[in-house]
Amino acid sequence: MLALTGAGLGVALAPAPLSRIAAPNVVYRTLGKSGPRSELVALSRIGGEWGAVARYLAMLGERAA
To answer: Which of 18, 30, 50, 63 sits at a 20 to 30 Å CA gap from 37?
Structure first.
């Protein structure tokens, strides 16, 4: 999952403890508190936030606010 995200092949939802793992080209984003009861983070490639990925991450950011 981390390698695919870092390669720019998509985004992923992952449990929060995974964010302790440093991975090349991956940034972790905390999701909003009104979402699922499990702690999840969104992964995306650093600098690869364009097109559909950018819109998806923006939507997640709006929900986190």
So the answer is: 50
